[in-house]
Amino acid sequence: PILLVQHLTQGHTTLDLSGKMSQKDAVDAIERLVQELRLSPSIATGITGQLVLDSNQIQSLPEDFLPLLPNLSGISLKKNALSDLPRSLQKSCPKLKELNLANNHLTTESLLRIPGFITTTSFFASSQSLRQLNLSSNRLKGFPVDMSTTGFPTLQVLNLSNNRIRTVSDWKQLPSSLTSLDLSENSVEDMEPLVTLVAADCPELQHLSLMHNQLKCIPPHSGLLGDYNPNLVTFNVRGNPQQAVRSNILERPCADVLKYLVNRMTPEQRQEAVNKINVHARNKARDNTCDHVPAKPMTEPQQQQEAEKAPRNESESSSELLDALRTSILDLENQLEKVSLSQAKRYAMKKSLAIERSKLIREERRLGLRK
Questions:
Q1: Nearest alpha carbon to residue 78 among 126, 19, 118
Q2: What is the pLDDT of residue 2?
Q3: What pLDDT score was predicted for residue 43?
Q4: Helix H or strand E segment including 208
Q5: What pTM did the predictor assign?
Q6: Rounded to whole angstroms, how far apart are CA atoms 151 and 125?
Q7: How are strands ordered across the β-sheet holding 234-236?
Q8: CA quadruple 41, 47, 52, 56: dihedral, nearest 10
Q9: For 40-98, what is each residue's pLDDT tens digit?
Q10: How far apart are CA 251 and CA 139, in angstroms?
Q11: Among 21, 38, 115, 301, which has the highest number of CB atoms less than 10 A from its own CB?
Q12: Which of 273, 370, 288, 285 shows the shortest CA–CA distance to 326?
């Protein structure tokens, strides 16, 4: 009855039906719920919080269910038996911030069956609000979605732990908003490509875990994450078969582990790693520029006018930007030399310095001043 739905919505905010269905009647229960929501659209649109369907042994959701709840900010379907997701998920919940699909039977193939999943037009890749995505404890052998900045503009937490992922070398980009990436309990053998991505793409990253994988080595240039990711407080690579770094070293605080790794690099290795990071950053900037919608074509006289004034204006603005960035960097470096700085202030200034240096490098590359 509708009264049951009203009660469960807790003031038209959250619809919590966790553990309310058995495997035998889950399908019928959801169908009845769909009917009730159709009869009372004001209740359906008033649910602006979570839809919680945990621990119900749900194997699938009807396509017409989620479109009835367009204002959801969170969906939790953990601890079910989902092997597929409804295609309607692509367009149903434009305001979704959290999606928890942990402990199901989802595979890479089932994700690909969602229309447009691997392109920037899919639900996951085009969501302008999604901040947390939990796909832990499923059966994924890969994560095939486009994780570019344009694809996940607001994603902060990505949990892919306890799956069957063997490689991340096919990942092209990571969202710049990412603060936590959990790949623990998988079968990843090589983390070197991931380190390059994290360093170039994720300046706000705080937590990175590849605990209990199949890593054959921990690349020394992982230590550079301390420079490129000043917010990083967790770097967990314990429980891997690699033998080059002792376990007691890996149990130290994040900053100590990164310092140990970077000290193992020769100057040549360091320069090579920095070059890889810089090349990736340059390619990413170019690709993202290419993704922009082309401007309306100009008339011939307009093109001539722009051609005459563009070099002068671009040169002047570029020179001003370079001067401003260099001044800012010099100022931050001078301030960091002060002994009286608190730890919190020093941490914040190091973060600002890393960001300013990154901006300077990108601008110098764009102008051909740096390879």
A1: 19
A2: 41
A3: 83
A4: strand 207-209
A5: 0.75
A6: 4
A7: 15-16, 50-52, 74-76, 98-100, 132-134, 157-159, 180-182, 207-209, 234-236
A8: -10
A9: 888 888 888 889 999 999 999 999 999 999 999 999 999 999 999 888 776 788 889 99
A10: 29
A11: 21
A12: 370
Do 75 and 40 meet the contact criterion of CB atoms below 8 Å apart?
no
Distance CA 262, CA 270 (A): 8
Length of the chain, in residues? 371
Place of tokens 């919190």: 344
Q: Which two tokens stand for residue 69?
A: 């709840």
Residues 6+ apart with CB under 8 A from 359: 325
Tell me the residue type at 83.
Answer: S
**Tokens 């930007």 found at:** 321
pLDDT at 345: 75
The residues facing 51 across adjacent strands are 15, 75
- Burial of residue 123 (CB within 10 Å: 0-12, 13-18, 19+) is buried
Residue with tokens 């769909």: 34
Distance CA 245, CA 242 (A): 7
- State residue 263's pLDDT score: 93
The residue with tokens 């320069």 is 271
| Nearest alpha-carbon partner for 229 in 143, 347, 328 | 347
Q: Which helix (H) or strand (E) holds 50?
A: strand 50-52
Structure tokens at 310: 């563009």
> How many Å apart are CA 129 and CA 253, to the nearest integer?
33
Q: What pLDDT is recorded for position 1?
A: 45
pLDDT means over runs of 10, the chain (371 residues) = 46 76 78 89 87 92 92 94 86 88 94 62 59 96 69 86 94 91 97 94 96 96 94 97 95 96 92 91 70 46 45 52 76 76 77 82 76 62
Nearest residue to 126 (alpha-carbon basis) of 147, 144, 109 = 147
- Residue 333 token pair: 């470096």
The token pair at 280 is: 């990736």
Rounded Cα distance, 284 and 354, in Å: 18
* C-alpha span between 106 and 84 (Å, rounded): 6
